[in-house]
Amino acid sequence: MNVKKFALVTAFSVLAGWANAQTIEPVGELAGEIGDATLIWQTLRMAGHGATATFEEIIPGLVSITVQGHLDGQFGMEKALSVSVSRTPQGHFVEGSVTYLASGSIRDFYESAPGSVTVSVKRFEETSDGGLIEGTAKGTLRRVRVEGVDVNEDDSDTIAVEVTFTSKLYKDDE
């Protein structure tokens, strides 16, 4: 699970009352099926406070990208969906993953196991004010339950995911 990115969601959720008074700008969308539901999520940005579609250069040429969507144009954890992928210095996209907070809990969620999801990037551009990304994610997510320090990854409790995503991206340090 990309804890750093979902911590961002938690921070925004804590500030929900304040955030609702601020301008929340939709900057992209994820759409598709997860389990038996067809949903549309929005990637969001609140000026001066960050965005849920980000990228950062880990080392020269290695870029980590996360596209995290929320329902109803509001920051929230319930049914939040996150697609992450990395671009190598050679320009190849690798290590795709998907995390889905079905109930909104970071203690009981679904995530991809290594090799269980294919994230394909059709377009990635860096621009002067951030970037753009388009792609798809398809595969199977397994249920994960966290109790104290114990992590139970349940390969027998799975859901299918198939989504497309298109979003403006912001540098992770914005």
What does this structure look like?
With 174 residues, the protein is mostly beta strands. The two termini are 22 Å apart. The chain has helices spanning 3-14, 16-21; strands at 24-34, 37-46, 50-51, 53-59, 62-69, 80-87, 93-105, 108-127, 130-147, 150-171. The longest helix has 12 residues, at 3-14. The chain has a seven-stranded mixed beta barrel with strand order 4-5-6-7-8-9-10. The model is unreliable at 1-19 (pLDDT under 50).
Describe the structure using short key phrases.
174 residues, seven-stranded mixed β-barrel, globular, disordered N terminus
The H-and-E topology, N to C, reads as: HHEEEEEEEEEE
- Strand ordering within the main sheet: 4-5-6-7-8-9-10
Span between termini:
22 Å
Tell me the total number of β-strands: 10
Number of helices: 2
Overall residue-averaged pLDDT value: 87
Low-confidence stretches: 1-19
Largest sheet data: 7 strands, mixed, barrel
Helix share, percent: 10-25%
What Rg do the Cα atoms give? 15 Å
Shape: globular
* Structural class category: mainly beta
What share of residues are in beta strands? over 45%
